[in-house]
Amino acid sequence: xxxxxxxxxxxxxxxxxxxxxxxxxxxxxxxxxxxxxxxxxxxxxxxxxxxxxxxxxxxxxxxxxxxxxxxxxxxxxxxxxxxxxxxxxxx
Length: 91
Hints:
Elements: H1 13-26, H2 30-37, H3 41-56, E1 76-80, E2 86-90
Antiparallel strand pairs: 1-2
């Protein structure tokens, strides 16, 4: 009898992060890992892309270099963009 895949199982984001971490640490090929886990290679590819994309879009809080309450006479914002671009604002 053929081994049945986990068709229709919904996994959480955390579960997929764990699966991808196990895959990276396994040293196995994608095909061998998926066969052993009963997961489709396409699901691995899709979640790898989804998690990579969302990691790049995470919010980063920046601390002010100027102490609170100090008057601001000049300001400058220098931002490095993906692809090597740079955004520089001054006021």
